[in-house]
Amino acid sequence: MSDSLDGMSGIVRSVTIKEAMTVDDQDRVYAQVAPSHRVALKKYQETGTVLPFGSTQNRITGPNLYLFNPTASSWAPPREANPLHGWDLKEVIKNGATSGAQPEDIYGCLYFSLTDQLREFRRRIRDKFTISFHVTSLPAGKLSTAITHHRPSMRFDRIDVGRTLYHDKAGLKHTIQTWAPFLAPQKDVAITGYCKMWVDSQPDGKAKGAGDESFRDAMKKVIANMKSDKPEDEVLAKMADNESLFFSVCHNIEMGYDNSKAFTKYLASQGLDEALSHTGLKLRDSRRIVPHRLGVPLEASRSAIPHFENEEAWYHATMMNSFSWSERILELGRE
Questions:
Q1: DSSP H helix total and E strand total for the chain
Q2: Are 201 and 268 contained in the same domain?
């Protein structure tokens, strides 16, 4: 066993990100981030570990074998996979600073932030709350059937149905009607769901599909959001000379597009009204648990678009994350 692991470790050490991504893809990732973050990202892709950059790694003497494919000598996760994605990097950097990590050492900041999160999680499990975990490999449809047969009285305060709302999965109407009966009788219970690929079947779900005027308006809002302290003409001139900036604006164009009306049409086409009528649930316009979309506060209206307070916040949300900015989040409840 030891020999096989040593051999695998040797294979992993020879792997570089170029073997898993084309040179063009790699350069595009590196081009959009600050030099210090390029170095940090390269080290992470070579080791697959989240540690402060200058750590001695006495306890971790080799790469993370779970992130490499020994047979193909390649990076196993999707090429855009990054543990930084999805986190509030402002908070990550703040937490890292309390332990002495600098913003340039972004994975070091994440290490200390995750450590704090896990310690708090452990404290809540052991000292604060009575919590039990049930892990199953059953798909959502079979799980609901199993609960009905084996634990018919089981009820939940919150049910996150994830991506099963898609028409190519269980479907929105079927998912809501299946899981609504498992909600507890309290008024604050909710079903939440994440919709990312809905734009594939809703032409005006994206700025480009909504027409030239919507596209131009979205671009203006993205530019204003990105460089709110500089004149628009100055930003446009800079974009002409900076390919990385140009591609960043194009990649994040959906950030400036209000897709709420298109999403409402999509929900109607998927049978939401019938599902709500059948279950007695309501689509919450005033949110209590999750916002309408990424990058907006909980109290924002359904038509709100993401806004960032400064250029650094923009950089963290766009260059250091991987959102399409078309994502919408559902929240259903009894009131």
A1: 13, 6
A2: yes
Same domain, yes or no: 94 and 156: no
Which range of residues forms the domain containing residue 160? 136-335
- The residue type at 35: P
The β-bridge partners of 69 are 74
Predicted confidence band of residue 330 (pLDDT cuts 50, 70, 90): very high
pTM here is 0.81
Beta pairing partners, 191: 159, 332
Report whether 254 contacts 324 (CB < 8 A): yes
Rounded distance between C-alpha atoms, residue 315 and residue 292, angstroms = 22
Say which residues have a Cβ less than 8 Å from residue 124's Cβ, sequence separation at least 6.
131
Dist. CA 102–CA 109, nearest whole Å: 7
Distance CA 325, CA 304 (A): 12
Give the per-residue SS3 of 232-292. Answer: HHHHHHHHHHCHHHHHHHHHCHHHHCCCHHHHHHHHHHCCHHHHHHHHCCEECCCCCCCCC
**CA distance linking residue 94 with residue 103, whole number of Å:** 9
Average pLDDT of the residues of the chain: 83
